[in-house]
Every structure is written in structure tokens, then in C-alpha cells.
Amino acid sequence: MLLFNPKKYNRHHADEKTKNLMLKTIEFFENKGLKKIKEDDQAAVWYDDFLEFIKKEQAFATLLTPSGYGDPDSRWDMWRIEEFNEILGFYGLCYWYTWQVTILGLGPIWMGQNEEVKHKAAKLLKDGGIFGFGLSEKEHGADIYSTDMMLYPKGDGTYLARGDKYYIGNGNAAALISVFGKMADTGEYVFFVVDTKHPNYECVKKISTSGVRQAYVAEFALHDYPITEADILSRGNHAWDSSLNTVNVGKYELGWASIGICEHAFYEAIDHAANRNLYNMYVTDFPHVKKIFTEAFARLAAMKLFALRACDYMRSANENDRRYLLYNPIQKMKVTMEGEKVIGLLHEVIAARGFEQETYFEMAIRDIGMLPKLEGTTHVNMALVVKFLQNFMFKPKDYPEIPRRDDPANDSFLFNQGPTKGLGSIQFHDYRKAYEGIRSKNLEVFMEQIEAFKNFLIKGTPDEKQTKNIDYMLTVGELFTLIPYTQLICENKKIYNVEDEIIDEIFKFIVSDFSAYATRLYTGQKNNR
Ligand SMILES: Cc1cc2nc3c(=O)[nH]c(=O)nc-3n(C[C@H](O)[C@H](O)[C@H](O)COP(=O)(O)OP(=O)(O)OC[C@H]3O[C@@H](n4cnc5c(N)ncnc54)[C@H](O)[C@@H]3O)c2cc1C
């Protein structure tokens, strides 16, 4: 039972309330029905019904308030947060998006030093409030160093905020938006909160996008918006780290949204194919279609096994164990790109039907490509991943074994992650252990590929010029990523007792992907010998 099935929901939860919350969310969407979900998507209407449900069931308040600030059963527990991501992705990425940007908006608040705002945020969550994360600006994209949002000191200890932000989710209705900017006099970074109902806050426009149509992705401007110390969350390095550490958590969720989309699309595609008879044959009986479904399933299973295990590392992280800083960007760029491949494969089978407005699939095609591009593009995340290559491959170290983390802990380290520096010094446990005892011919081939990659790194070590060439390192990064990706998949094979056949199918595409990347590196780059 690897795939989420709303008809046979069987996920383990430590408490009844969480389980009921998941079941009620499923029920909400099942009652709404695909027809209405698609009508609302096409009309691009704001999802009041969903937000009403969230408020009534206290969903965001329960799941997104850390222990100590809300009701006794509120906690920041990534085991149930990942699950909620998957369910929302399964029914529609726009619903997921309002939740996702709420998480991002809450990040700098829970990471900040302003206790007053924390209590206010907890109260707003109880009242059904949603939040926003104001990082991106139109002119600067991924270059957040260049932010133009400024706080101008008035000389009496208060400030006026002036500037514009672009692509900001929930910008029409957020109870609070965490805004990243600089002090106009010192250039020091700062995070502060604004209220979208304030007269000096202007929601300039809705940026209409091909996917998440119902979401409100806003351009907003602050016109001398008054800010006092009570609105400031963090300054200087703390503010900078809060932006990156928030994205560290947020980027993990993107993979789960992708998984949810692929699961729904998989069911729809196989249902369509199994009921379609062509040339006296069911489409599912065509040999090439069987192959496509097998590969789509294997890729999806791999995405999910990786994502589940990456969560264990994130939940177990502490100042001495920051391995999640490699696994999270992989979850962000690899899992979401695999999601695009899965939808591409399934589309080959569902074919014309996948374009019909009434299907879920039509929405999946539009939404799936957004995930690799949000919260740092694939390139930015790959540039991050290669920083870990040296230690991962050549300098393993022992760590205590990390079990499946489905316990009801409050993941407080995520709000206390510390400085975002020193990534190159993080060490990992020996990846080879994960492969031990697994019977798979394709894994054996992959292990030969790993040895060849290691040899390449030793004998043709990328020199300074190559390491500075992002294009070169992106290809090296693609090859490298397959190792930690399969490491976690294999660890979870043992934890979840996944059949050998599934693992062998997973390594079949891994071997072929590795060959393709290796060919790209060999033919497309100037390599050392
Ligand atoms: C629907 C939607 C919702 C969004 N929601 C929010 C939100 O709520 N809050 C928010 O703050 N932002 C939000 N964003 C913004 C999103 O995070 C940005 O798209 C992202 O930061 C990248 O900026 P960009 O797309 O303009 O790409 P650019 O920064 O213009 O990048 C252009 C190209 O350069 C490459 N590149 C840039 N820098 C590097 C680097 N250092 N290394 C390697 N390659 C690099 C990129 O990979 C890309 O190929 C949203 C965007 C969309 C489309």
C-alpha cells in the first residue's frame, strides 16, 4: 500500500485527532467532487469553502502551531505535515499552495525572537487565518541579496516600510505576511510582519498563472507602512538565516505535493486505459503501455520512499546532525522533477483524454511543472547539493541509527536551525550500508556505476575552473544525486518491507538515468583525464 488511497486510508497516526483531521479533509474533497473542483479551477475563484473548512476543523491551527503556543494537541510534527501536503496535492495544487505559503509565512515568525507576534500568530491561526511569505521581488528573482524592500528609520525608534514584492501567495487575504527587507540606513537584513488589511498595504494585482489558478499570487506594495519593534521578527544574520531556514522546511513540502499529484493522475490514467478497448484489446494489455505504467509506478514509489525517509532525517536533525540539508534540496529538485517525468509517462497513455477540462489530469499537466521552479529553481538546489559531494563520497562517519519517525514530537529544531553556513563540513553515514542485503541485478549494475563515478572523481577531479562552471557541476550533480536518492530509498525498503521486484524496477530506471547523465557529461563537457 505505497500509494495514498482515499478509499482505503491506512496511514498510522499517533493520535485519533490527527487521523480524524486527515479523514475529514479527504471527506471534504470527496464531497466537493472532481466536477466542482474543476469548475472552480477553471473559474479561478478564491477557495472560501476550503478556508471555511480549515477554520471549522482547526486544521492549520492544529498542524502549524508549535507546542506551547496553541491547544495541547497542536505541534509542529513533520510526519503529519507531510501527509497533509500529499492529500492537498492529490486533490488540487491550488489548495496545497495556500497551506504551503502559510507554512512559509509562519517560518520567520516561529524562528524569530518576537514572542508577542508568535502568540498573535497562534491566535490568528485559531481564527482561521492564513499567512504569506514576502521574499521575492520582480527585478531580483533568486538573488535575494539585492532586495529593494526598505525600512526607513523615523528617528523615534519606529520605521516606514517602502517597497514592492512579487509572486507572493495569499497576498490578498493573509492575516500576516512575513516580509524580508533591509534597513535603509545600515543595509542590515530584517524580517517584519505586515497586515494585508492595513491602509498602507496595497495588493497591486493578482498575477494569473497557468497552474494554481485559484490561488492568489500577488504583487503587493508597502507605501510608508508604519513598523514598530513589535512588528520586527529578526535582524541581521538572524533574518538572513530565517529566510534560508524557512525555505529549507518549505522546499521539503514541494516533493509531497508532487507525489500527491502523481498518485491521483496515476489512478485516473490506469482507470481510463483499463476501460478503453482498441483493436479488440484493452489499452492496459498493450506491452508498451504495461512498460510505461511499470516505470511510472517505479518512479512514483521511489519518490515516496525517498520523501518518507528524508522526513526521518529532518525530524531527527540537531546541531550535530545536519544531513537533512542534503536530503531536503534533493526532495525539492529531484522528487519534483521525477514528478514531471511520471506525468509525462502517464500522459503518453491517457493521451487525448488528459487534455479534457473535466479530468484531474488536465490540471496535473499544468501544475506539476511549477513545483521544480518554486522556492529556488532546480539549478539553485543542485548548486547546493554539490557542496556535499566530497564528504558524502569520501568521508563517511558513523551516526546513531535513525528509526521511522512517526512519533508525536514537536520538531522544534526546525525553528532553531542556526547559521546556514558550513555545508561543506557536514558528514554523512556510509551510503554503501543502505544497499547491503538487497537482491537486485539492477542494483549490482548501479554499484558498478558508482565505482566508475568515484574513479572519475579521483582521477579526473573537477578543477577550479570546472567547479566554478555551474553547467559542468549541474551534470556532475545529477550523477551524484542518484546516490543519496537511492540510499534513502533502500533504507526505506527495509523499514517498509518493500518487495524486491519493486526495488529492482526502481534500479532499472536509475541505471538508465545514470547512463544518460554520464553520456551528457562525457560528450557535453571538457573533462580532465
Ligand atoms: C506561482 C508562484 C508562486 C510563488 N510564490 C512565492 C511566495 O509566496 N513568496 C515568495 O517569496 N516567492 C514566491 N514565488 C517566487 C519564486 O520563489 C521564484 O520564482 C524563485 O525565487 C525564482 O525566481 P525566478 O523564477 O524569477 O527566476 P530567476 O531568479 O530570474 O532565475 C533565472 C534563471 O537563473 C538561474 N539562477 C538564478 N540564480 C542562480 C544561482 N545562484 N545558481 C544557479 N542558477 C541560478 C535560475 O535557475 C533560472 O534558470 C512564486 C513564484 C510563482 C511562479
Characterization of the model:
There is one protein chain. With 529 residues, this protein is α+β, with helices and mostly antiparallel strands. The chain has 17 helices and ten strands. The longest helix is centred in the middle third of the chain and has 39 residues, at 236-274. The termini are far apart. The mean pLDDT is 95. The site of flavin-adenine dinucleotide has 21 residues, from strand 3 and helix 11.
Element layout with pairings:
Elements: H1 16-43, H2 48-57, H3 59-64, H4 78-91, H5 93-111, H6 115-126, E1 131-134, E2 150-153, E3 159-169, E4 176-183, E5 189-194, E6 201-206, E7 217-227, E8 232-235, H7 236-274, E9 277-278, E10 281-282, H8 287-315, H9 324-350, H10 360-368, H11 378-385, H12 389-394, H13 432-435, H14 441-459, H15 464-468, H16 470-496, H17 500-524
Parallel strand pairs: 1-4, 2-4
Antiparallel strand pairs: 2-3, 3-7, 4-5, 5-8, 6-7, 9-10
Helix pairs in contact: 1-4, 4-5, 4-7, 5-7, 7-8, 7-9, 7-10, 8-9, 8-16, 8-17, 9-10, 9-11, 11-16, 14-17, 16-17
Bound molecules: flavin-adenine dinucleotide.
